[in-house]
Structures are given as C-alpha cells and as structure tokens.
Design goal:
Radius of gyration: 21 Å
Distance between the termini: 8 Å
Strand content: 5-15%
Helix content: 40-55%
CATH architecture of the largest domain: 3-Layer(aba) Sandwich
Strand order of the largest sheet: 3-2-1-4-5-6-7
Number of domains: 2
CATH topology of the largest domain: Rossmann fold
C-alpha cells in the first residue's frame, strides 16, 4: 500500500513520523511524508519519500508569535490556526497533488484538511495525533487549558474547540470542496460525519503518560510513542564528546522551536541559574539562538535526543510533546518550562508522573526559580527513580502496532 503521511507544524510535529514511517515501510508499505521543505533532510535521511508542503513554519512562527509576545494558551492556539488558514488553499493543493499517488492518508491535526481530499479521491484516511483531541470528561482540552472544568465542562470545551478551530478555514474549505466537485458541508455536519463513520485516530503517546479515557470511542487508540528514526551512523562532534568526558553529567537546556523576542536576555537568565545551581550544561541554541560561554557550558545545534538525553543529569525544556517523550524515554528528571498550546498539558503530566519538582511557566521564569528546580531535580534521587521506572514501562510498549493494525485493516 502507498501511504501518505501529512505532517504539518514545527520539528516536534514532524520528527515522530520518521520513526512511524520507517515502521510502516518495514511492514511492506511504500511511505511518503508530505511536510515542509525545512524537514526534507530528516525525511530522506530516514529513507522515506518526501513531498513538499507550503509554509515555512520556522519563519512564520518566529515572525508572527514573537511579534505578539507572550500570550495565553487559547490566544496562541487561535493565532496558530490563523497562520495555517492563511496557507490553506496552497496547502490543500499540495496535499491533493501528493494524494493522487497514494492509497491511504494519515493526517496530523494541522493536516486535517486532507480529509476532504481523501473524500474526493475515495481514499481511506485516519488521524495520527500527538496530542489528545477527542473530547472527554476526564481532562480539559489540552490545547487551551490545564484547569479542570468538571466532567461536562471538560467535554463541552473540547467539543467547542473542535468546532471553533475550523472557523478560520471555512472559506478555504468551501472553495476546496467546490474545486473537488464535492457538495458543501458545514463544520458541525462534517464532524458528525467523521464520528458516524468511526473515523479512526491513533494517538502517538504512551498510555502510561495519558491513560486512555473511559469515555472515548473504541476507534480512538492511545497507541504509544512513535520515536523519531535513529541514525545508526551518528557520531557526536568532538567538542561534545570532550565536554561530556570532562566532568559530571551536565543538564540539558533547550526550547526547540520556541521563538523569543530577546534570546540574549533568556540566555543570560539561564547562565545565571546554572551558576546559582553549580551545574554544567549543554545548551541547545534552537530557533531562538540561545547561547552560553564558559568551561561549564557548551552551546550546540540539534543533536539526537535519543543519544544525548541519557547522558544528562536532567533536562530543561519547553514541554513540547516530542521533547517530553524523549526525556521520559531517557529516564531522567525534567524541569518543564511551558510556553503555549499543548505544552502546559505535558508539563502537568510530568508533574503527575513525579519526574519533575515543578513546571515553571515561561512567563514566570527567573534565575532563582530555575536554579532551585534544577537543584531539586538533580539532588533528590526520587525524581531519577521515578523517571527510570517510567522509561522501563515505555520500553515495553510498541506505539506503531496500533497504526499498523488500522492500516492493514483498511486493505
């Protein structure tokens, strides 16, 4: 079967699909990942086919979100939807072009517009999501809040978000369906059709981290993590190997694709926290251009988390889904510093799992608070013990199995 994965977003939204794609390929399927040009090397490096999608997520996220400054979860989610909606027509055209050579579509949340393409081409499709999106009474919608709203409130809020999230796309969807020869359909009717058809969704995170809600339908599956494809030829740069060998395990600090208005000020804050805690650190420059200097701090570009994290004493990160998963897999304590969208949700999950002393929302980050959290994370053995236990559980899971089951069932 020719499988097309539509992966829209930043690095953390794309990287897990290199691993899932490799697993599908190993099972005998031909796999193409349609994503942004920025990620073509990682797709081809996993020996998967690549199809370009419009939108430079690094440029758009950095310019639009940095210009607006720090904001709440809901406002950031709305702004991200507007960014995607501005590119909806060319995105749909690119998905259609790629789908003409496919037998099945696997769609990430930001690639949901592909359901209309699949309908027009009479292709089976399914969701492959990295964040919980299906409404439930058990927790509020992960993309907008961590505040419990009560059972009915949690479910209502998530349902409302699914409807409201389509509003910026209404004009583009209407035009796309007209181009495809499909009849018009409203958002409520479209969502109802997906439910009635038992449209499958596989969630690429562990049930150890977020247990499957009891009120989810049985065509929604909490599958387990899809780890990014490993590079068997990777060797660390000499300066990294030398730094690690020169002293005790350092902590990792990196905020991935998060944009900052002033990366220099954030870098200074991080260095002050490290001095207060008396710790060595590997700092990932990321999209914000973080930097550090001195014998106890090494600044690096992207390094494979599966290689780097097990060599760290703790990880400070933005609590993106992918980095959260990598830290848990490595079995090390975390200090999450969530910024926006689903990150507070994952930060709270880390706290519930007992692998972090406390999440520190970015707007509340200070050198003193970070230093205190790092001291506890690295000095209290209970965090490491709990993290080691979680890592052992994750090692026994097979996150791609549920996806393979659904895909093979569509043959």
């Amino acid at each position: 079967m020719r499988i097309l994965i539509i992966a829209v977003g930043s690095r953390g939204d794309v990287a897990p699909f290199t691993g899932l794609g490799r697993r599908l390929f190993a099972a005998g399927h031909q796999v193409t990942v349609a994503t942004h040009d920025l990620f073509e090397p990682s797709i081809r490096g996993a020996d998967l086919d690549f199809h370009p999608l419009p939108l430079d997520t690094r440029e758009e996220l950095t310019e639009r979100l940095t210009a607006e400054g720090a904001r709440g979860q809901l406002r950031t989610t709305v702004e991200f939807s507007r960014i995607l909606a501005a590119h909806a027509r060319p995105m749909a055209a690119a998905i259609l072009d790629a789908a003409r050579q496919a037998d099945m579509l696997l769609l990430t949340p930001a690639g949901w517009i592909g359901t209309h393409v699949a309908e027009a081409l009479s292709l089976p499709s399914m969701g492959v999501y990295l964040q919980p999106m299906t409404p439930t009474r058990e927790f509020p919608p992960a993309m907008v809040t961590t505040r419990a709203l009560g059972g009915r409130g949690n479910r209502w809020a998530a349902s409302a978000l699914l409807n409201l999230g389509q509003r910026p796309f209404r004009t583009a969807v209407a035009a796309l369906r007209d181009d495809l020869g499909l009849p018009p359909i409203g958002t409520t009717a479209w969502l109802a059709r997906l439910r009635a058809s038992r449209w499958p969704i596989c969630y690429g995170y562990s049930p150890t981290v977020v247990p499957q809600p009891a009120d989810w339908p049985d065509w929604n599956h909490t599958a387990g993590y899809w780890w990014p494809a490993a590079d068997p030829a990777f060797t660390p740069p000499p300066e990294v190997a030398d730094f690690l060998a020169a002293g005790p395990p350092p902590v990792y600090i990196g905020f991935g694709s998060m944009p900052f208005a002033d990366g220099t000020a954030v870098s200074a804050l991080l260095l002050a926290a490290l001095r207060k805690a008396g710790l060595r650190a590997v700092v990932n420059s990321g999209w914000a251009g973080l930097s550090g200097a001195g014998g106890d701090v090494l600044t690096v570009a992207d390094l494979p988390h599966d290689w780097l994290f097990p060599r760290m004493a703790a990880v400070v990160h933005h609590a993106g889904a992918g980095t959260t998963a990598a830290g848990l897999r490595a079995g090390i304590p975390a200090v999450p510093v969530p910024f926006m969208v689903d990150q507070p949700f994952w930060a709270r999950r880390l706290a519930l799992l007992g692998v972090t002393p406390e999440p520190i929302p970015f707007r509340q980050l200070t050198a003193d608070r970070l230093a205190a959290a790092l001291t506890r994370a690295t000095g209290d053995s209970r965090y490491r013990e709990r993290a080691t236990d979680i890592a052992a559980r994750l090692a026994r899971e097979d996150g791609a199995a549920a996806v393979l089951h659904v895909v093979n069932g569509s043959l």
